[in-house]
# Entry
Amino acid sequence: MLDHKGRTIDYLRVSLTDRCNLRCIYCMPEEGIVKKTHNDIIRFENLEKVISAFTALGIKKVRFTGGEPLILKGIEKLIKYTSSLPSIEDVSLTTNGILLADMAEELKKAGLNRVNISLDTLNKEKFKEITRGGDINKVLSAIEKCISINLKPVKINTVLMKGINDDEIEDFINLTKDMPLHVRFIELMPIGEGLKFFEKSSMKIDEIIDNHKELIHIKDKSNVASVYKIDRAKGTVGFISPISCKFCSDCNKIRLTSTGTIKPCLHSEEEINLKPYVNDEQMLRSVIEDAIYNKPDEHHLETDKKSKTHKMMYQIGG
# Structure
């Protein structure tokens, strides 16, 4: 599938739920969220139809996100279905890791290829503060489990926040020396709850690279992250900078929300509802094709200083 800019769109991110078992300060309100009704959420049987339609049009990679996708019953069946589709080359998952250790083997058997685990601090008490009550030991156990069963690469997503976790940058980098982990530092984005922290806590990726001369730039398949490594390290260090160095010209993603709408761009207010078409295969493909062809050229976070989307980060999946 090509959009009007000639970009190949072959990567689908599916947000399965806006619910989560954590309340990270830059993502979700402390009081939680207003729960969607059963009818608001696209059902798994209809989601399978939508994913199948996307793959028929050229999608090769699918990532399941949330909220927290592992709180949903039957996710392993959805992964198995998705991985069985002929054109699918990669099925991945973004999770906070709290439930992952106990589910990792079953998910791998179902067809999960790799995981991204969100982890913004290595300090037990700070983890409780950032997540409002989470247990970091469960996340660390999940990381060890994934490595032990060869569910890798294991990527660690770390959102950078000045005054909150910027004192741990070196600790995260050092993780990659002896463990086959791929740490990805991500710029804080001015979206949802993140707007409350953006002016005070946002950081530029270049600051870190300039201060760590031991990092060696390497070639990587990613069109999102700039990837580095320390000499002889088992893992890598990546930097994702959607604001200071946006990658819209190479964007290959399309997003599906838990309510069954396409978001052609993470930061656009535009959404296209697919639920009316789930039982009409031809019409479903046509609507998807049109949405992808008209995908926005780029976002304007660098000038607007805020996202145009009306959704919170936990409703989109990043």
Notes: The radius of gyration is 19 Å. The chain has a mean pLDDT of 92. Residues 131 and 189 are 17 Å apart (CA to CA).
